Amino acid sequence: MFRIIHKDSRTRARLGVLSTPHGTIQTPSYVIVATHAEVKCLKPSDIKKTKTQIVICNTYHLWDSALASRGGASRISFVHKRLGANIPIMTDSGGFQVFSLGFGQENRIGKILNPVDNRLAKSIIHRGRNVKITEKGVCFMINGEKRFLGPELSIKIQEKLGADIIFAFDECTSPLDDFDYNKKALERTHRWAKISLKCKVKSEKHAPYGNEVSRSGLNGKHQQLFGIVQGGRYKSLRIKSAKFIGSLPFDGIGIGGSFGKDEMVKTLKWIVPHLPEEKPRHLLGIGKVEDIFNAVEQGIDLFDCVIPTREARHGRIWTAKDHYDIRKRKYANKNSSLETGCKCPACRSGITRARLYKLFKDNGKKKQKAQRYATIHNVWFFNNLLEQIRKSIKNNTFIQFKKRFLNQHNNK
Ligand SMILES: [Zn+2]
């Protein structure tokens, strides 16, 4: 169940509370990535200490172990057991990884299209040899093995994983796909959205759902299913998708797909006005500082990104002003904390730049320690930023806070 508790007077930003079987999430919120149902480099007991409210695990990577697990009499779900922290968890549908095999891995294209990719665009052929899309789903090759994933199986796996929030299976197009391809893919995604809902309902025999009682009327005590808006870089498709997915009885809305660089705000302005106001909105795979502010301003409640965790593992430390590489020689003798005044558990325990520099130089156990401290700091930094954003929405000072923060932040 999602409740909006305050709306910013000047923008679409809103404060909300999302209830799940494993607790509530104050929104807007960062969703920390826990690919294999663990936040890399953190101990389970670190997770809550970094102000993490919710994590997202990867269905594609947990697929085999989930289906192999018996479940048994345990009341704890597969992902909660593995994470070892009693907080809300999401799983993605697995679609993004499967489609990445086709366009991402082979062509080195991510979610955001860089100018350099544009130059390559003409020489790249759609989808790789590894991926074949049919009405039922996607056949793909991985490590010489033929596999298949479609809407029914994705829901089945996600139910087995047992997260609080799961996603419908959708087709992610490449930023290089043209209008005609995106149109076809979108129609397929919409058919898959209906199938995903149908499968979920079938398995929730006792759950009242239908025209009279919406799934969100279940008080957040059930596993929630979010639909996904696609449509690539095309306004008419994005609006069509927002209206269609918004009209279905999903518990929340995910916004997926790739945008050209600097196209995020434009895309959100097309989509958000057509989404149901009362449902939570998750922008998938976005999480840089400036993008966070812009997404919140456009009415986004949740977003996930690997930046806080992945960059920490490589020694990149985030601060309100910038980010820096702690492995550089100039930090070898700096006895200040990772960020002046930082209240994260690592900085409060007295970790200095010099100490972290030294720990990162080690190749063994000490490096693991370094990565843990860096992860604690970065995850706390992003979660704390979101806490400040929530405060500013509450006080109707979001726009002032955004300007002030971004003015002093050099790495957007
Ligand atoms: Zn810190």
UniProtKB/TrEMBL annotation:
<dbReference type="InterPro" id="IPR002616">
    <property type="entry name" value="tRNA_ribo_trans-like"/>
</dbReference>
<dbReference type="InterPro" id="IPR036511">
    <property type="entry name" value="TGT-like_sf"/>
</dbReference>
<dbReference type="GO" id="GO:0005737">
    <property type="term" value="C:cytoplasm"/>
</dbReference>
<protein>
    <recommendedName>
        <fullName>tRNA-guanine(15) transglycosylase-like domain-containing protein</fullName>
    </recommendedName>
</protein>
<keyword id="KW-0819">tRNA processing</keyword>
<dbReference type="GO" id="GO:0008479">
    <property type="term" value="F:tRNA-guanosine(34) queuine transglycosylase activity"/>
</dbReference>
<dbReference type="InterPro" id="IPR050076">
    <property type="entry name" value="ArchSynthase1/Queuine_TRR"/>
</dbReference>
<keyword id="KW-0328">Glycosyltransferase</keyword>
<dbReference type="InterPro" id="IPR004803">
    <property type="entry name" value="TGT"/>
</dbReference>
<keyword id="KW-0808">Transferase</keyword>
<dbReference type="GO" id="GO:0002099">
    <property type="term" value="P:tRNA wobble guanine modification"/>
</dbReference>
<dbReference type="Pfam" id="PF01702">
    <property type="entry name" value="TGT"/>
</dbReference>
<feature type="domain" description="tRNA-guanine(15) transglycosylase-like">
    <location>
        <begin position="11"/>
        <end position="410"/>
    </location>
</feature>
